[in-house]
Write a structure and sequence with these properties.
Elements lengths: L6 H16 L4 H8 L4 H25 L6 H14 L16 H17 L15 H14 L2 H12 L3 H8 L8 H17 L1
Helix pairs in contact: 1-6, 3-9, 6-7, 8-9
Length: 196
């Protein structure tokens, strides 16, 4: 991984993306973003080379203040982007972008890692093991407990085997605001820089 950051910093970055993409933004999250509670984090990401993407995300969050019901607009965007049928949305599941042997291999490795860490999919959320947030939760465990080489293999083989297609699909979905597009662009750039 080419981002020269500590294990804890990497965990925080990916944990933040997981929190932002796990479900639609809550009032608390939106208020925190608009009140500047993440400004230090955004400054840090800017120092790492993501100033353009951070500025775009912050501008889109700020633009939401002009909306009559910003959280409802963002909830609609989240649904449009991630929750509708796969032909209409960029659903965040590996099985929507991989098929055949590539999918079987990816899912088998996810099952192996879930078992190794004694994790199971949350029965309340009913998310399958190929949901992006399950990948990010596993990546968090790898960041905490495994060597850099194992982390890099997971990033390359498990995430980057399907995330480029997911990002591309998301760019084709029409939304009312640019918040999630800017967030996904930032996420994509972080992942790409990890691979350089």
């Amino acid at each position: 991984m080419t981002l020269v950051i500590s294990r804890e910093e990497r965990q925080f970055i990916y944990g933040w993306f997981n929190a932002m993409l796990a479900r639609e933004l809550s009032d608390e999250q939106l208020n925190a973003l608009q009140a500047g509670e993440f400004d230090d984090f955004f400054a840090y990401l800017s120092e790492l080379g993501f100033a353009e993407q951070v500025a775009k995300f912050q501008a889109e969050v700020t633009a939401c203040r002009q909306l009559e019901f910003p959280r409802l607009e963002l909830a609609a965007d989240f649904a449009q982007l991630f929750l509708l049928e796969g032909n209409l949305s960029a659903i965040p599941y590996a099985s929507a972008y991989l098929e055949g042997e590539a999918l079987a291999k990816n899912l088998a490795e996810m099952d192996r890692l879930l078992g190794e860490f004694g994790l199971q999919v949350n029965r309340e959320s009913k998310e399958p093991s190929d949901h992006l947030c399950v990948y990010l939760a596993l990546f968090d465990r790898l960041l905490a407990e495994k060597p850099l080489e194992t982390q890099q293999q997971f990033l390359q083989n498990q995430l980057m085997s399907w995330l480029p297609a997911w990002f591309a699909k998301a760019k084709t979905v029409k939304t009312n605001t640019g918040v999630y597009f800017a967030l996904l662009r930032l996420f994509e750039e972080v992942l790409l820089k990890e691979q350089r």
